[in-house]
Amino acid sequence: MSNGNSHSPGGDTGLQDMNGLIEKLALGEIAMTKEEFVQKAKDAGWADTATVADDDATRASDETYGGAATVYSWRDEYGDVGPEVPELESQLYGGEFQMRSGAHLANLQLTVTVEGPTPIAPFRRFEDAGLHPAVLDNIKKCGYIHPTPIQAYTIPAVLQGKDVVAVAQTGSGKTSAYMIPIVSKLMGKGMKLRTRTTVAHPLVLIIVPTRELAIQIFDEARRLTYRSMLRPCVAYGGFPMGTQRDEMRKGCDVLIATPGRLKHLMEEPEILSMSKVKFTVIDEADELLNNDWADELDHILRGGDSNENPDHTYMMFSATFPRAQRELASEWMSEDDYVQIRVGRAGQTHRNIEQIIIHVDRDLKQQATFDLLYASPPARTIIFCNSIIAVDKLDDFLYNKGLPTTAIHSEHRQVEREDAMRAFKTGRRPILIATGVSARGWDIKDVSHVINYDLPQQQYGGITEYIHRIGRTGRIGHRGLATSFYNERDEEIAADLANTLKEMDQEVPDFLQQYLSDDGRIRFADDAGEADEVNGEDGGTAVNGEEED
Ligand SMILES: Nc1ncnc2c1ncn2[C@@H]1O[C@H](COP(=O)(O)OP(=O)(O)OP(=O)(O)O)[C@@H](O)[C@H]1O
User: Which residue intervals define the domain DEAD-box RNA helicase Q in the entry (predicted)?
Assistant: First the structure.
């Protein structure tokens, strides 16, 4: 094993020191019993696996599903804004697991490019954005003091009624960039638009690729619609259908949904009608515009009568937007009232994530992970593997060595996925092992280390997937570390990886140097087509490749 540099999330323990240990472990020179491994984990400060309660025993009912979480309960006599409900308020905003911005927000201040028929004037303070007072109040309760760049441009664009494609770095506040103006616009009109029947008639449809992300965005919607008549609802695979239908019948003004479950619900006209939808948001749009989802998305976007609404606004958001998906996105946008907002280069990461690439042979990866977890004090860590089998094997390997792991992949039952996420968020099991594709958009407090046990293969997203995976750390002004294991099987991603490191002034290890161009220019296989603005305030020097748009 060799590595380009050394770092640890919480100390100065060099990764170079790991070389000898990993080799020893591989050769079986350290033969410890299970009890000794458990003791070693405890001594290092990791949560004791023996005291972690069995989640099956503590699980009570459907209420443990994130989709059944309490929302503000509206009564018509409230007028425009309802009264405060302290208990709900502390649940929504007071949680110790809610993210607060870190000290390095300035690293997200990159050059913003706006393309569209009319210019967009950004605002500097939420108070100046012309938002409904109740929304402003909810923003304060969330602890958002200054808008992030994507918010400063997207909020006015949506308030002006534009269709929007927005691309900005991971963890830069894209969710509230669309949620704030939509909720604010509807606050004044919600009453008039609302249809009181047992059939859900959402005004807003937010489509996301994964279940965990759906629940997370539902939580953000619960915060931003607090004290309003707008009732958020979430629909995702694995959420029991009975509870799902009950929740929808209670009213559903803002529907957050994964495509499969949404398609299913659209086949039940006594449950859901799309006829009132005014805003359709596609989050992680490049993923959803991908071929794998094409049928579902086409059905959803064309299937409802919402498309006939001349007032309908479409919005698409992501941290990455490869060329093919950008072309597909433009098909849904209004020709003369459409704006594209990019912060930095589309698909660019940011400087709050320190990236380290270590050369690790395939058969040494388990030991390398084990050792990496001890190379610094315990920290919330997400480990990505490329297959379900690899996730399960690594989970077993680490858990049997006394480390408090949990795992998420598509073969787990939904209740297990939600338990795993809860155990990770609360720190009961601070090591989460997952297949990469499930992790887009996750926003979890205090994730200080991401490990790419496997680098994403080209056919499963390559560098785009890498950007999303490492983006689970270093969010909203916090710093984080991303360590990736590289070997010869990863050559497909090598050039984009080397250029990504160089673009962010990270050390490019010797084994990746050959993939950098001799002229010192930074090139990506799928350039984002914006050579004009990449020399931003951040001092970035990305330059387009040959394949310009
Ligand atoms: N203006 C703000 N000030 C402080 N924190 C904010 C602000 N806006 C959003 N946040 C918080 O920043 C975190 C990241 O936001 P969000 O999940 O929307 O990022 P994102 O850009 O969608 O990332 P990704 O591309 O990974 O999905 C969230 O915890 C959110 O509550």
Answer: 124-152
Q: Is 471 in the pocket of ligand 1 (CB under 6 A)?
A: yes
Number of H helices and E strands in the chain, helices first, is 19, 15
Kindly report, residue by residue over 399-430, the tens digit of the pLDDT.
999 999 999 998 899 899 999 999 999 999 99
Both structure tokens of 36:
């000794």
Pairing between β-strand 232-235 and β-strand 254-257 as defined by DSSP bridges: parallel
On whether the CB atoms of residues 194 and 253 are closer than 8 A, the answer is yes
HSE-up of residue 247 (Cα within 13 Å, Cβ side): 29
On whether the CB atoms of residues 425 and 406 are closer than 8 A, the answer is no
Q: Is 480 in the pocket of ligand 1 (CB under 6 A)?
A: no
Question: From the CA of 174, how far away is ligand 1's center (Å)?
Answer: 6
- Do 79 and 120 meet the contact criterion of CB atoms below 8 Å apart? no
Name the token pair of 177.
């960039």
Do 364 and 18 form a contact (C-beta atoms < 8 A)? no
Contacts of 502 (CB under 8 A, 6+ apart): 508, 516, 522
Higher-pLDDT residue of 180 and 526 is 180
Alpha-carbon span 331 to 327, nearest angstrom: 7
Whether residue 312 contacts residue 163, with contact meaning beta carbons closer than 8 Å, is answered with no
- Distance in angstroms (rounded) separating the CA atoms of residues 282 and 268: 22
The residue type at 234: V
For this complex, say whether ipTM is above 0.90: yes
Q: What is the pLDDT of residue 52?
A: 57
176, 217, 464, best to mutate for ligand 1 pocket (most atoms within 8 Å of CB) = 176
- Is the Cβ atom of 175 under 6 angstroms away from ligand 1? yes
Which two structure tokens, joined as six digits, stand for 437?
């594709």
The token pair that represents 231 in the structure block: 């009732």
Which pTM value belongs to this model?
0.88
What single-letter amino acid sits at 286? D
Residue located nearest, by CA, to atom 20 of ligand 1: 171
Q: What's the 144 CA to ligand 1 centre distance in angstroms?
A: 10
User: How many Å apart are CA 499 and CA 485, to the nearest integer?
Assistant: 17
Ligand 1: nearest atom to the Cα of 142: 31
